């Protein structure tokens, strides 16, 4: 982790740079798999599953029996932990429900909006050694609260043709309606286009490697909404003397273990803190199993020392971190200064892993400086907000002349006429 | 307008089809203009303005003097109408402000979210004969309420090098911070990349032709957020005997005059209503100036007769119209059935043009069935919602074991360690 003292604003763009992974242009691969699945459906899906996941499957759909059996394999302790996390996530996302307010903008003109669930959503959960059941909670719980009718989950099977029991347990607990053993580009293609088995979804959620990311981008071009643009995970910690350097070190490491392309940034107003945190990182790192991953991530990471915490927050706004830990004196009174961040953790006891798993906030967040223009996943991500309006005859009489004038000025005569014809009948006394 | 009696669900996909405009692949054109503007900035902008808009400009930025002068050219009546509309739009969008609620999900674990304005937004307003000042109101007013620091507006100049006075008046009224005389792909490129003159924006808003649409898609690939995927405008009217057929006809025509690619759909439970509406359309159409446009739009349009209004609403949900007028008995009690729509107008006096201009709702709405998975523009479109959390030491003690168990099961040891190291110190009595 290289240290920079009082970097000047000219240096900021370089210091805010993420590691750019030279991603292969996967467009052609993605298109050809989409075309194949559009033409041959389940047959093509099974072929790709055989090829990429090394397993021949009769049925892609996970049966009720399989789910029950798998759930029983999850230890009682882990079941309880997942339940606790699920309750917190539910509580927080339920608080995001919007209460409809009817506004009378002009006398007799009433406007309001109401939320409606997106009908069918698709959740992609990557395979690999670690089962990301926490992401199932983060996506299926708000979908369930929103009232999505179909909550589809796709995840690649292991060599034995199974999905990890913890994923199935979490899916069952959170109201996922259908689960399919299919991964990669082919899973995204199936949910985008629909097959005989797998329903076409309205919106796609979930993380994935560069193949999945490319496939989601292509899906978006075809009209399927997606949760967020993708990028490697990142953490920025702003710490002053009130921090415990060992805690800070543990948080930076928890982010670094996500992948070699992760980035962690430490911002402080004291060089001493940098030394202490660096020393603690060396010590804690020694016992971690994913050392090579952590070391690779730390190579892309930086410590920045600013004269004031306020200047540090300015840099943080420029960087727009996915996760921001603010462990400074009087942290809660400084949050007004925060402009760009995915999720913010305040004080010594709010470690990032609390939000990753169980505090209740969502862990699907904007990376790669997208916190400047995107929000993380929330209940909002699973609904559309529809506006409604009702004008009474009086309301139209009050507002009509305004509309007529504006329509005329925009040279839209039929727009004007829609008002004029009504006002005329009202004036004639045909209505009241 | 062709009529269909009780179309079967098998026919619905065909009946819900929008007119597909064979759009040229503009990717290469878009990329080359973006590249040129990235390299040569204002010089390239001026070149394209000369080429596409036929005018040579010294300054692309509209000066304060020009704005003042133009505003004075707008008639007092139109100024007042714009002000009235602006007040209603402000009132309704202000009601969309979210009040932050702090939730204690577990004892000692506090989660909440707060909105922050997107810093810099770009508004594109097309040129042409009709000045779309109403779109300025719809985009700049919520941006101002959100607190966006820079509200940039680009619009192509006319042959004399001017932007329509009504657009400048609306921009001045609604807090637009900078206005530039630049249009088309080059305007979108300038706002996406930034030039010496024009700031790089975080999010792009506004309508446009296929060139602008392609450029916005490309901007999105480069990381700039956009308001909505584009498509031709559309209206679906559901009417029963309680409707006034002349009013319905006027609404269908107001939609049809937008463009030859617009679509209008009439749904009713009575063939008589179709005849009456069709007759009224013929009559009203005769006096409209944009007759050829209207006729072209009506060619893509349909009347569907269902046995019940409820069935008609089902079709409407399948179609997912941008605008939906519901003029049926007891309309307000039927809105619970509406699942997919951009904006809904209830009863005989709620004509679409009210929402297009002045009632207060936004007119930037999802078209082309995107109402299934996208909301229209609202205050939400101009903010990010950042989550915050604070765990007290007790909070971490309560939730810590849950996080540790989940992190272990996901094989993320450093995530577990971030909790363990804190719990250990608390147990040692180092903190309280």
UniProtKB/TrEMBL annotation, chains A, B:
Annotated binding of NAD(+), by residue: 124, 186, 209
Binding positions for Zn(2+) per the UniProt entry: 255, 258, 356, 415
Name of the top EC class for this enzyme: oxidoreductase
Binding-site residues, substrate: 233, 255, 258, 323, 356, 410, 415
Cofactor binding comment, as recorded: Binds 1 zinc ion per subunit.
Swiss-Prot/TrEMBL cofactor(s): Zn(2+)
Domain of life of the native organism: Bacteria
InterPro entries: Ald_DH/histidinol_DH, Histidinol_DH_CS, Histidinol_DH_monofunct, Hstdl_DH
Family: Belongs to the histidinol dehydrogenase family.
Function in brief: Catalyzes the sequential NAD-dependent oxidations of L-histidinol to L-histidinaldehyde and then to L-histidine.
Protein name: Histidinol dehydrogenase
